[in-house]
């Protein structure tokens, strides 16, 4: 019993930070990301499965929870008070937050799969093969989604700049 | 920018199919977008202790075998239903055996009825009723009805031909 508890704790310590970052990048809210991270692991326990690729399974569950959350809540980009505390210069803080907000708006307008690919690739550092396992797609499909995702974001960001 | 990021970027930019290249945006713009995404990379320090505690408590509940009392309680519907059915069957059989409403239904019950004297019966058996004797109840009425004058016979009309 003690061994099982220790192993489960290690599993949580290994995967929970990555799951948290993934959810945070998609939703932009720390409290929600913490709650959903906890929910991912509880649902994993209740599913009573032993997946071959645990990380891919957890990311898929996280994605499903994000979709459910967005269905019930309008996605809003809030100024994260904890990041604000790390900045000493208020002007820099506002400028940084505005850039982040632009990027998150553009990211939110991609398709769900493109969002997943962009976040996992450029924010979590996953390889194409790892992303393919998480999304249950081929490596070629992942590469195409990355390319189209970046292209769409470029169009969206350039459109915002011209409107400013 | 780290070499690792550049490698990832090259992978992404080289990933489009040949048919998409003709419509592909300028590579430099894509690179700029990808680099800008790094702005989103810093994340706040998560507070995962509460979630970790909740996860381990849930795991402990899942791993721990149920208490023997819980095992009994865990099958309440089946156990209760079976016991209730048994009780009903036994009670019903006893009730049927005590009454003689259906003497043929139980083997040997007809012999029981024959050997039992009527005085031992607590409830009357259902038999063909004898004609009701009204005299004890309405002697005056019976006497009156008996002494009524008999009606005169009506002569049968004879058909005549005129």
Task: Please explain how this structure is put together.
The complex is a heterodimer of chains A (164) and B (162). With 164 residues, chain A is mostly helical. Helices cover 81% and strands 0% of the residues of chain A. The radius of gyration of chain A is 17 Å and the shape is globular. Chain B has 8 helices and no strands. Chains A and B meet through helix 1, helix 2, helix 5, helix 6 and helix 8 of A and helix 1, helix 3 and helix 4 of B.
The number of distinct helices of chain A, counting runs of at least 4 residues, comes to: 8
Structural class by sheet pairing and helices of chain B: mainly alpha
How many angstroms separate the termini of chain A?
60 Å
Structural class of the secondary elements of chain A? Answer: mainly alpha
The domain count of chain A comes to 3
Give the % helix of chain A.
Answer: over 70%
Tally of alpha and pi helices of chain B: 8
**CATH architecture annotation of the largest domain in chain A:** Orthogonal Bundle
Task: Summarize the topology.
The complex is a heterodimer of chains A (164) and B (162).
Chain A: H1 2-27, H2 30-47, H3 54-72, H4 81-86, H5 90-108, H6 112-123, H7 128-135, H8 139-163
Chain B: H1 3-13, H2 18-21, H3 27-37, H4 49-63, H5 68-73, H6 76-98, H7 109-115, H8 139-146
List the defining traits of the structure above.
heterodimer; A: mainly alpha; Rna Polymerase Sigma Factor, Chain: A; 3 domains; 8 helices; 0% strand; B: 162 residues
Q: What's this model, at a glance?
A:
The complex is a heterodimer of chains A (164) and B (162). Chain A has 164 residues and is mostly helical.
């Amino acid at each position: 019993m003690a061994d099982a508890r220790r192993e489960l704790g290690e599993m949580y310590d290994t995967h929970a930070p990555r799951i948290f970052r993934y959810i945070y990048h998609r939703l932009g809210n720390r409290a929600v990301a913490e709650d959903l991270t906890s929910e991912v692991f509880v649902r994993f326990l209740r599913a009573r499965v032993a997946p071959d690729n645990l990380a891919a399974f957890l990311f898929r569950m996280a994605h499903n929870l994000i979709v459910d959350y967005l269905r019930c809540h309008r996605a809003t980009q809030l100024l994260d008070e904890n990041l604000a505390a790390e900045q000493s210069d208020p002007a820099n803080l506002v400028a940084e937050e505005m850039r982040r907000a632009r990027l998150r708006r553009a990211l939110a307008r991609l398709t769900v799969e493109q969002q997943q690919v962009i976040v996992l690739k450029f924010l979590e550092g996953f390889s194409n093969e790892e992303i393919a396992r998480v999304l249950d797609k081929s490596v070629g499909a992942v590469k195409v989604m990355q390319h189209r995702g970046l292209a769409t974001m470029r169009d969206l960001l350039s459109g915002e700049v011209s409107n400013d | 920018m780290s070499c690792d990021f550049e490698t990832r970027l090259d992978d992404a930019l080289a990933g489009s199919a040949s048919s998409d290249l003709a419509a592909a945006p300028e590579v430099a713009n894509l690179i700029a977008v990808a680099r800008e995404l790094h702005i989103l990379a810093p994340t706040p320090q998560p507070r995962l202790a509460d979630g970790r505690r909740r996860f381990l408590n849930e795991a402990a509940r899942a791993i721990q075998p149920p208490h023997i009392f819980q095992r009994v309680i865990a099958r309440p519907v089946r156990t209760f239903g079976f016991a209730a059915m048994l009780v009903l069957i036994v009670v019903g059989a006893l009730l049927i055996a005590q009454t003689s409403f259906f003497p043929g239904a139980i083997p040997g019950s007809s012999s029981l009825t024959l050997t039992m004297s009527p005085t031992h019966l607590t409830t009357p058996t259902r038999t063909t009723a004898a004609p009701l004797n009204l005299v004890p109840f309405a002697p005056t009425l019976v006497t009156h009805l008996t002494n009524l004058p008999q009606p005169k016979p009506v002569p049968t009309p004879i058909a005549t031909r005129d």
